Structures are given as structure tokens and as C-alpha cells.
Amino acid sequence: MTMPTRRQIIAAALAAPFVPSIAFAQSKTVTVALDWTPNTNHIGLYVAQAKGFYDQAGLKVQILPYSDTSAGTLVANHVADFGILGVLGLFTQRTAGADLVATYALVQTETGRLVFNADRSDIKRPRDLDGLTYGGFGSDWETALIASMIRHDGGEGKFETVTLGTSAYEALANGAVDFTLEVYTWEGVKAALEGVAQRAFRYADFGVPDQHTNFIGSSQAYLDANTETAAAFIAATRRGYEFAVENPDDAADILIAANSEVLTDRAFIRASLQALVDGNYFKSAEGAIGTIDPAKMKATAEYLVAAGILRDKDGVPLADLPDFSAYYTNKFVAQ
User: Where is the SsuA/THI5-like domain (predicted)?
Assistant: First the structure.
């Protein structure tokens, strides 16, 4: 799942005054909660703001400062109109009763991977991880994910876990742990720039369904009450991501300018964005951008239920698939 490197909390940039579009008598304010401090996953939001796409849509968009309260919680409790939702957070929170709906797929394919140091000649395939030490982040999902990859490869799925949070990357580099999970387009790119040689296993190569790692989502209550505003916001945001794909140099500069106190390494930001473009994450090879794939959502739901990760509002693991079709909509991307 998406776990970018933690940085100091900073104030997010606020949108400049906007000119109303034909669809609105006056600018509509839309608030957006981030899932972490600003990074390349969020670049389309900042591009849409800086290039006037929200302006043209009659919107005044406020990107809220990152906080330790999850974006899903802020959206479900109507503190934010939209938020960046991880796939795991969407499914677990929605299943437990939270009012969350994914409205835009930030990436078209999984950005996470299981990673280890390249000089580990003893690790050739996932089953070689049995008995080794994982530097983790404290969720049941990680254990289920890694164990299923090992078992899929013929192993037992048994390993030691040390919960380290983002310190896991340093621990991996110095050999204190044997492997961890990372986001290729963030930690993976950073490691490459720093000359840290790594090898990795892609989840989908070992029995884990390919996923949309994260989404832009809202609450059904907000979408029902603000249908036109939601459509305008998603359309303008999509323009922002399209611009970033076609103009990565300009987009990187926009993201950095909006977050200059925390994003100081342009070479890293530019390389991360290029990885997202070259890997067809923001825009698939077939041209899909923002669209949520129903087959991916179904496979993800089935996997999470089978792993015992999804629990109802009483904390009871689901025995059957939920009506996952209500967890997302392509209505606003289509418009």
C-alpha cells in the first residue's frame, strides 16, 4: 500500500481566487485531504490549481494540510469533501460502515513491491523469505500480503516481523532487517538515485491481484448533494494529471513551488514523476486515466475477504463478498 517517506507537516498551498464558470453563479469551495505530506501522487491537484483548471471549472479548491487523521476519516465525517484514499483504507473503512466512495483512480496499476538488498544471494524467490525478518508498518494487511506471496511460491509463509514504520528503509539498508515493502515510485526511485542496489518482487507476480493503489474519493452524502460540483472537480483534476503526464518538467516545478519548504530535491521529484509516467501508472498504455477498473476492484475485494482483512462494523470478519460495486463510481470520470 502507499507509504511515502514521512516528512515534516507543512501548510498546504491554498487556491487563488477563481472566476465562476457558466455552471455556477459563484465559485464553489472544495476541500481535499491528503493521505501524506505532498508528493508526486498528488501532483495533478497542484497542477490543476496552478494552471487555472479549477478556476475555469468555477471552483475554489483548498488542499488541506496533512494531519495524522486519515483522509478517509476526514471525508467520511464530512470534514473534507474529497480525500486521497489508499485501496486498503477504502475497503476496510467502507466495510466497517464509513461513508466512502472512490471517484478517481490515481494510478492504474499497483505501485508497491516487496524489496530487499541486491546482494542477498540467498533470496531468489518469495519462498526464500521464510524464517527471515520483515521490517514492517504495523498492519495485519502486510502479514497477509507477504504470507500469501510466500505460500503462492511454495513456502510456508512464516517470517519474523519488527514494526519500524518508515525507519524500515534505513534498517533494510544497514542489514538490520531482511526485507520490507516500499512504493516503487517513491522509495524505490530514491534508493536508485542514492545508489542503493535493490531487487524486488512485484505483488501481482505471486498471487496478489493487481490494484489501484490509491484513489481520490468522497462520501456518498457529498456526491448526492453536490453532483455538479463533484463532476467539475474530478474533470479539472483529471486535466491536472493529464498535464503532468504530457509536461513532466513543468508539473514537477509546479509541485515543488507549491511545497517549497518540504520538497527541496528537484532531481528526486522529477525522477519520481518520470517513473509514474514511464510505468503507465497515471495513464495506462491503453490511455485510461482516472478510470476505476471493476475487475481490479472485484479481485481486490475477493482477496481481502479471503485473507480475513475485511470486517463489519462490529469487527466480525466477512464470510461473503460485500456489495463492492457501491465502493466506487466512474460516473464523474465519465462526465
Answer: 39-251
